[in-house]
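User: Can you help me understand a structure? I only have the sequence.
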Amino acid sequence: MSELSGGAQSGGSSAPAGTAASAGSRNISGRFADEIHSITIHARQRTFYVDLKESGNGKFFKISEKSRGGQKTTIMFDAEDLDQFIQAFQEMKGKV
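Assistant: Let's start by predicting it. Here is the structure, written out as tokens:
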């Protein structure tokens, strides 16, 4: 697991909802998905968790945000959509 600390511009509210990862089948170990890699980002009053996971239906990203008050929000999107998210973030970065 990797950890990153955010600067003064970190944070933000909600991320755009992507294509939800396919649900349903469990893998051999009995879990919904195996974790491939995880990164934790500490940014101001929030902590973000970026996980790359794999299920029987393929690889997907799970991004969760936990606020100081303990509220948690999660989105998931298929790994094949990663380039679209990177492009959107790069466009947003140019506007900051």
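Now, to help you interpret it: The chain is about 15% helix and 45% strand. The CA atoms of residues 13 and 65 lie 9 Å apart. Let me know which part you'd like to focus on.
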